[in-house]
Amino acid sequence: MLALALALLSGADVTFEQTTVVQAPGSPPGPGVHTRVQYSGQRMRLESDEGEGPVFVLRLDDERAFRLDPARRSALVLDVGRLRARAQGDVALAGELMGAHDARPRTQPLDPLTIAGYACQGYRISAGPTTLEVFVSEALPVGMERFAALLEWTGATASLGPLVEALRALKGFPLELRSRVMVLGQPQETRTTVTRVVVGPLSPSLFEVPRGYAIVEEDAPGKEGSK
Question: Which of 177, 191, 211, 217 counts the most CB atoms within 10 A of its CB?
């Protein structure tokens, strides 16, 4: 969720493909999850970067959300209030695990890296038992301010407090995030790396239910219509 929350608000539309890997120290990394994320204003689309499987669309501009199933040509309309409450609960739990309010974050620079073809400056942010390493690029016309609306919507601003402020103080677009937190007394490491970035206009149709899809309400699976 934090990786996702680090990614909304600026004039330019942006598409990026990313890989997220979770592992315990000393253990081999998992297979990784590959996703494509597209943002346009306060609209977001999340799907597999191979173009298969369900597609999640969140519309903060008009408080709508739905999950598209291309195989069944259906759209499940999600309860936005319930979705927001779930997101805020997840972020609040993450805040507790990360000890976000227990210590004032400390930020120190790391050696630069090149990620997805862009020169990035690295930073290590330490707060209590949590360590984040973030690599940001100023070569893209979007920055941390792009994510303000989503951070607010998920409750990250309130639950992660000073940690979010430390992240928002960084200049540039985040192309890699490495986090290390304690889960039930065991360290867990997560790395999300952007592998491709495209900045440019996105079609409004990407954030709508395609024509011909059946509409299914979340709380009434037998209630269908068409669009």
Answer: 177
Question: What is the 3-class SS of 27-62, one letter each residue?
Answer: CCCCCCEEEEEEEECCEEEEEECCCCCCEEEEECCC
Q: Grade residue 101 by pLDDT with cuts at 50, 70 and 90.
A: low
Which residue type, as a one-letter code, is found at position 147? F
Dihedral angle over CA of 53, 203, 155, 109, nearest 10: 90
pLDDT in tens, 7-34: 443 457 889 899 999 877 677 777 788 9
Domain boundaries, the chain: 2-226
Give the separation between CA 218 and CA 226, rounded to whole angstroms.
15
pLDDT confidence of residue 160: 63
Q: What is the CATH number of domain 2-226?
A: 2.50.20.10
Instruction: List phi, psi (to 5°) of 41.
Output: 65, -120
Contact assessment for residue 160 and residue 194, using Cβ atoms and an 8 Å cutoff: no
